[in-house]
Amino acid sequence: MTDSISRFKGLGVALITPFRPSGEVDYPRLEALVDRMVCNRVDYLLALGTTSEYPTLNPQERDDVLRCITETNGGRLPVMYGLGGPNTQMMIHQLSRVERLAVDAVLSVTPYYNKPSQAGLLAHYKALAEHCPLPMFLYNVPGRTATNIQAETVLRVVEACPNVVGIKEASGSMKQILYLLNHKPDNFLVISGDDMLTLPLMAAGMDGLISVMANAFPAEVSNMVHLAAADQFIKARLYHDKLFDLAQACFKEGNPCGIKAVLYEQGRIDNVLRLPLVSVSEELQQKIHDLLNL
After folding, report:
1. Has residue 38 been placed in a domain?
2. What Rg value do the Cα atoms of the chain yield, rounded?
3. Is 168 among the catalytic positions?
């Protein structure tokens, strides 16, 4: 496996976008978040993924958020760039500018809303890969997109597209994930997109995690992932068990609503989201507060 791909093993963090009470992007707090990730053994950053509230950012804000992340990072960690949507031609147009950005790979979610067939997914990713100058990762999260890219389709994409080098898998289907792990090429990365299932998935052979929880707990999640990667699962389980109840609470009313509630309790951000997302309920905020203070 080339160094450019192996850098995406281990722990990646799907960065949130902090907002001021006025609703504007809070760039100083985004800078502080990036610095904290770098200092806590995170392996790479995911910019403008779902957790960033990407759909609510206008084009200029997206550029500015990415620039803030890459300039603050200063080349210290690899950066994966979230770029996906239901319009293949629009995605191809956006890929035309990727080489001018300070990013190292592209993460492209399955098209949402229009619910393509498996043949449509194959054609979509073949078209994107043809125009992508960087290593590309697929992102399967049917709970959000209503479209599941089946393991067999993933393998067909990989066979046809040498620059498709991995997948962030958040289908929740152990049967599908195990099939993919048992049939994938050796140099193809399978990365967990589910904080709560990462430990058993890494025991089954996954290559790491793109985490939401690491926004608030970078050291703890990093320790869990790196211990699991070293087959030290008993030690890794200590971190998994410590964070499990809190992770369940974090995702109860949606992402990034829960992780922003945690970061607010930690004093790191204002608890502000953009519509149609809203802050978690008072009941859940209190539960998160109590779990943090156990």
Report:
1. yes
2. 18
3. yes
Counting Cα atoms < 13 Å in the Cβ hemisphere of 103 gives: 28
- Examine residue 245 and state whether it is found in any structural domain, yes or no: no
- Crossing angle of helices 174-183 and 151-160, in 10° steps, is 30
Q: Facing residues of 82 across strands?
A: 107
Is 39 part of a structural domain of the chain?
yes
Assigned domain for 267 exists: no
Could you tell me the CATH number of the domain that includes residue 210?
3.20.20.70
Peptide bond into 256 cis (omega under 30): yes
Q: Encode pLDDT of 120-133 as tens digits.
A: 999 999 999 999 99
Among the listed residues 44, 81, 125, 139, the single catalytic one is 139
- pTM for the model stands at 0.96
CB 267 within 8 A of CB 292: no
Q: What is the pLDDT of residue 129?
A: 98
What is residue 78's three-state secondary structure? Answer: coil
Q: Which of 9, 44, 81, 168 is catalytic?
A: 168
Q: 45 lies in which domain range?
A: 3-231
How many whole angstroms from its chain centre is CA 27? 20
Position 294 scores a pLDDT of: 82
DSSP annotation of 101 reads S
H or E stretch at 192: strand 189-192
**Predicted confidence band of residue 115 (pLDDT cuts 50, 70, 90):** very high
Q: Report how many domains make up the chain.
A: 1
Buried b (16+ CB within 10 A) or exposed e, 45-71: bbbbbbbbbbeebeeebbeebbebbbe
**Which H or E run contains 82?**
strand 79-82
